[in-house]
Amino acid sequence: MTVPAAEPEGPQARSPHPAPDASEETYDLVVIGAGPAGLTAAVTAAELGLTVALVDSAARPGGQYDRHPAPTLSAGRPPAPHHDRAPFADLRRRLAASRTTTCLTEHHVWSVIRESDGTWTAHAVTGADGTDGRPARTRGRALLLATGAHERHLPFPGWTLPGVVAAGGAQAMLSAGLVLPGRRVVVAGSGPLLLAVAASLAAAGARIPAVVEAAGYLRYARTPRTLAANPRKAAEALTYGAALLRHRVPLHPRSAVTRVHGTERVEAVTVTRLDRDWRPLPGTGRRIACDALAVGHGLVPQIELATAVGCATRTLADGTRGLALGAHQETSVPGLWAAGEAGGVGGAELARTEGEMAARAIAARLLGRRADPERTALLRRRRDRLRAFADAMAAAHAPGPGWTGWLTDDTDVCRCEEVTAGRVREAVTGLGARDPRTVKLLTRAGMGWCQGRMCGTAVACLTSRGAPAPPPPDRRLLAVPVPLSALAAGEPRGTGLPAVREGLESPAAPLPPADPRPAGPPGRPEAPPARHPHRRSTP
Ligand SMILES: Cc1cc2nc3c(=O)[nH]c(=O)nc-3n(C[C@H](O)[C@H](O)[C@H](O)COP(=O)(O)OP(=O)(O)OC[C@H]3O[C@@H](n4cnc5c(N)ncnc54)[C@H](O)[C@@H]3O)c2cc1C
């Protein structure tokens, strides 16, 4: 939907060239993702003189960090606000003031295509969940991907019981739905998100019997200069730490939830101490009563739209893949930029910084003007400093190879297709599978609705049997599930599935207006994926 101008607190949608169907316009810039990165990029680009379409699948801009209660709940603000809301208030004010930004919410982008004239088309389905809406096209001279990240899940016995929720999901339930996942909630997994989630749940009235962190915090001490250069990050951690102390929440580092107990739903969890490779230490298991478990093992950049058009990726410090980006946030594909967690997980401030950098580079290119050198230099220093911290954080919380020791043979690894760890192991040891793709063909792991987003990491780790796990294949034809009717509806104008195939297989198209100022070389790219996408079975 296009957000109505009269929506209280929300952005105002004003088309730069009023027309009944926004998809017919060619904007200067199409931004996909309205989290801190995309929102910052959109308002900056508009203030620099570009027409912008800001596209997001959610009902309101804000992304992961700035979630709001659903309008039907009549709540003014989230119950447990983050400490850093001022920048978001500023972004919302600038968005509302913009006369050249069109905000297209509830648009689920399933593919982006570079046209033969060098412009970009984003194909989306509309509606709250994207399955009942109409298809929509949005065209732009440049495209910025700010699609954020999704949570990484490592399975363990009992993880499919009702009452086990994702850590970010628990926060979203609270912020957007004003509900708690339970009354006694254990928060577990790895990464700084756990502290934020536990603090929010405790502030909203939940009892938190334990926060269980698989990594050890001492690993941060290996990068003292990076820590010293980022005092705000330490302050953030202290704020959450103080909140946990106030609510008497015990923190268990180097430990993991290795089993969930219960028949109908969660009744308790077993927390086990880990060695430095995340192997469970025998005899250290302790049962903790609870009625919910919020669990997450870090975040994985959401890069499907980019890799589908051949963007190069790089392996991040925690073994996940992010986009390989140049000095001005450009991807390896001309005319396509990225900002925020798509290039590596690093927090809201880094996302905003990269969003502004990308917008300035795009405006310079499209308008044929030189970007403000002082502002660019300042942003670049800030980005590099925050990226260094993000890398240290990713290294500190990278899953150790021993985590697969938590799995029993009957633990579901792929919950969509109900494939157990035993079946994956059998495919590797008994049938000779050497890579996750072969395991998938032999077992159906990763062929369900989520298309491997949930089980991809686990299958890769089980396949590699303790060796560093190769990241799962990250090239897919459709970034989100799309009804066939939406594909068929695009057919007459040359969109739809055949055009998707065309877009993937056609040789590189020319760029729109040339940039007088060379943008820096792409940073440390790995070989781009093969031009032909991995064939994936549809759900
Ligand atoms: C519970 C929680 C607590 C956090 N606490 C902190 C904190 O204390 N400090 C901190 O610095 N950071 C924190 N973070 C991290 C912070 O939220 C992220 O770093 C930040 O939101 C990243 O911004 P982004 O713009 O890159 O991505 P996001 O905010 O994730 O935004 C991405 C947007 O893209 C949209 N999108 C994705 N794919 C598509 C598609 N195909 N079609 C259409 N739209 C799409 C999504 O709907 C989303 O709105 C927290 C995150 C969570 C979940």
TrEMBL record:
Ranges annotated as spanning the membrane: none
Residue ranges of every copy of the FAD/NAD(P)-binding domain listed in the record: 27-346
Alphabetized InterPro entries for the sequence: BFD-like_2Fe2S-bd_dom, BFD-like_2Fe2S-bd_dom_sf, FAD/NAD-bd_sf, FAD/NAD-binding_dom, Metab_Enz_Cyan_OpOx_G3PDH, Opine_Oxase_asu/HCN_bsu
Compositionally biased intervals (Pro residues): 509-530
Region spans: Disordered: 1-23, 62-85, 488-539
Keywords of the record: Oxidoreductase
Pfam families associated with the record: Fer2_BFD (PF04324), Pyr_redox_2 (PF07992)
Lineage: superkingdom: Bacteria
Domain BFD-like [2Fe-2S]-binding span(s) in chain numbering: 413-459
Gene3D superfamilies in UniProt: BFD-like [2Fe-2S]-binding domain, FAD/NAD(P)-binding domain
The protein's name: NAD(P)/FAD-dependent oxidoreductase
Native source organism of the sequence: Streptomyces gulbargensis
Lineage, uppermost ranks: Bacteria, Bacillati, Actinomycetota, Actinomycetes, Kitasatosporales
